[in-house]
Amino acid sequence: MSSKRSSSFRRAIANGRRTLQREILLDETGLGLYKRFVRYVAYEILPCETDRRWYFHQNRLCPPPVFIAVVTIVQIIVFMCYGIMLNKWVLQTYQPDFMKSPLVYHPGHRAQVWRFFSYMFMHVGLEQLGFNALLQLMIGVPLEMVHGILRISLLYMAGVLAGECHSGISAY
């Protein structure tokens, strides 16, 4: 039976037996700000003490978790541009000029594929933008530190596409 196991399964078993410097991650002292943040992320995201310690000791700042931060900054910039252009900061979606935007999804423009993804930059008002930015930064950045930019960006874009498909269906 053991000869039929894949190499990735054997690597996972070997990683489970890895040795680490200390028993409990909280025993680490004299940590800088970044390493304390990494420890916090490990305790918030990872369920097993062995995984927390391994992540803490293997974590590097390269590549940095930039995807969620960049998306959040672009969302804020787009919102501010539309706020200045429309002179309205709340319920921008009720403005006719807003609905004519090339970023907003409209069922009549399904041939314009970028609209399936660009609508992630659009927000109704300051409350929605602030809440989304807060959640993205508090949850998305630590998840990106644990899972990497590729997994988180694919998951984020899948969520955008799923939300777009839902809004496209409910528009009819």
TrEMBL record:
EC number per UniProt: 3.4.21.105
InterPro entries with a match to the protein in the record: Peptidase_S54_rhomboid_dom, Rhomboid-like_sf, Rhomboid_IM_Serine_Proteases
Top enzyme class: hydrolase
Subcellular location: Membrane
Main localization of the protein described in the UniProt heading: membrane
Catalyzed chemical reaction(s): Cleaves type-1 transmembrane domains using a catalytic dyad composed of serine and histidine that are contributed by different transmembrane domains
Membrane topology: Multi-pass membrane protein
Superkingdom: Eukaryota
Family per similarity comment: Belongs to the peptidase S54 family.
Protein name according to UniProt: rhomboid protease
The organism of origin for this protein: Goodea atripinnis
